[in-house]
Amino acid sequence: MAKIENGRLSADTRSIRTISSSSHMDDESSIGSDSEINGFTSDRHTDKYGFIGGAQQYSEESAQDLPPEVLRQREVKWLDMLSNWDKWMAKRHNKVRLRCQKGIPPSLRGRAWLYLSGGKVKKEQNRGKFEELDSQAGDPKELDVIEKDLHRQFPFHEMFVSRGGHGQQDLFRVLKAYTLYRPDEGYCQAQAPIAAVLLMHMPAEDAFWGLVQICEKYLPGYYSAGLEAIQLDGEILYALMRRVSPLAYRHLEKHKIEPILYMTEWFMCAFSRTLPWASVLRVWDMFLCDGVKIIFRVGMVLLKCMLGTREKLKACQGQYETMELLRTIEPRYMQEGFLVREVLEVPVSARDIEREHHVQLKRWRKNRGDLHCKSPPRMHGARAIMASEPPSRQDLRQNPTIIVESQLPPPPPTPQLKKEEKKSKEEKSKEKKGKKKGSMKKTTPAERSALFSDFPYEHIHSSSRPLFQRNFFSIQACIVQ
Amino acid sequence: MAYAYLFKYIIIGDTGVGKSCLLLQFTDKRFQPVHDLTIGVEFGARMITIDGKQIKLQIWDTAGQESFRSITRSYYRGAAGALLVYDITRRDTFNHLTTWLEDARQHSNSNMVIMLIGNKSDLESRREVKKEEGEAFAREHGLIFMETSAKTASNVEEAFINTAKEIYEKIQEGVFDINNEANGIKIGPQHAATNSTLSGSQGGQQAGGGCC
Predict the structure, then answer these.
(1) What is d(CA A210, CA A110) in angstroms, rounded to the nearest whole number?
(2) Least C-beta-crowded within 10 Å: which of A10, A275, A444, B169?
């Protein structure tokens, strides 16, 4: 259980602005919810991602709204993929990749991320591990730092807005569990935003395994003492820029702007604190499928867009000016559609990164000696991870575990649902026309009930329920045949 | 806006001592208790006036966690001033000052002016480090010292401005080579011609706020 000393923590950080009282909060009933709310004005508007007052910049404007029919079709496809994950990954991985590039449907994103990252397999192969770690006390020193950071992660997201509320409690549990899981690594502050993004999409146990996978497979060494891996990746990014945008490369060189100055937060937080939210999600969809090359490519697109023309460079003659520019990236370059298109076009592959890694490692050894932290080799994406830890069918089964806790009755066949049913039939027939290849397998009734129950209903904040319910119904509409 | 000089500052100290809040209070004149944790580096800038001269302060705010120390060295480079911050309500943040100071001395130029700041002075009831201890530490290590509150803005202006004054004095004494940007000082276009007319007195009132 989270040990947040609310009294102590809140005293020195109480907002000087008026804080809306807890009774106005949607999650007033939530366990552990606290009267202390992160400071924000009372006329709060929550965007569809859960950010209050548009706190994650430009999220609304930059999001592409998909027609519901398209979304439902995608949900059907993803449901099929998730129930036959091993086959899809083995035989039609390109299709999985393509669908990640198009964007994972919001209702299935959490589950898809867990499957892509291998967190699902890891969780199944380590049953009870999280519970065990969760029940341990933890190193007081680490806990002290973690506790200080809880209210500093997406403080304007409704899930993390209330002190000692669900979100902050879960964040504490996940981060604490990680320090117990990897005592050699401990807690690094940049892990917190990663864990928080995961928690916005899945329950604590799943988020924990997702975090483990990101820290160990996707970005090994990023959060280890000395931060050598991130510095090395900075050098790799810089070297690869020479090819992607010689102009930007020369500018960075001329003004002696070390990569570590501009890319630390980008890479360590996987852009979760840089981009508008719609773009963060699309980048993560691709990142968890294809690995770190996506992070490199996003970095390169931003550098190229901001520093890639003579005109732009004229306006920023100097280190500080350049740094300022890179901290205020024009929204149009971060817009979801633009960014994804550009990212897909960057001519940098995982192999290029590995090759450059080798070159930079050699240089590092020559100049600075051996690395202090020997990290395991990086896995470039979902397929590599799956190959390294082959799952059994059992590991990939979708478990209806949460329904037991939530005591949520199975969805009754309401008249509304029947209506949806009809609609979904029409859509299905439409979809069949447009389909090139058939799906692997039809959903069985058992799996269908698993779909309802596997969804982390309990975990979802009551305040985000409207959004969730929308998605929830859209799933129902899709799968009822 | 044209400036006579530009000084680069860096803010260092343990995590949670209030580095980002000090910066925000100085540049924006507000206290924001809820903000994202600093990962890597943040920036701020403000114009001040010393001795009738416009001086632009360019401030780099760093991540405080131990593991980020290894990359903080990149930020020290070319800093003319450093604010070394501890939290008067947390003894450990005071105890870590020596290692911070070692880092700063090792990675910066030797003339860098260091201001020691005991922050959160508004929390008198929870004080763990006496003011005298801060003063003694500063004396011992040749630092300037102040207690501040980023929350109430007490002494925040003074901390940044006094550091600038000290740097300005050093320039006058000829300690800093102002033509070498690695010292964290840049001469602005406005001042280049009148460089030789520096007088001994210091004005020290700040220009009316505003980030630049």
Answers:
(1) 10
(2) A444
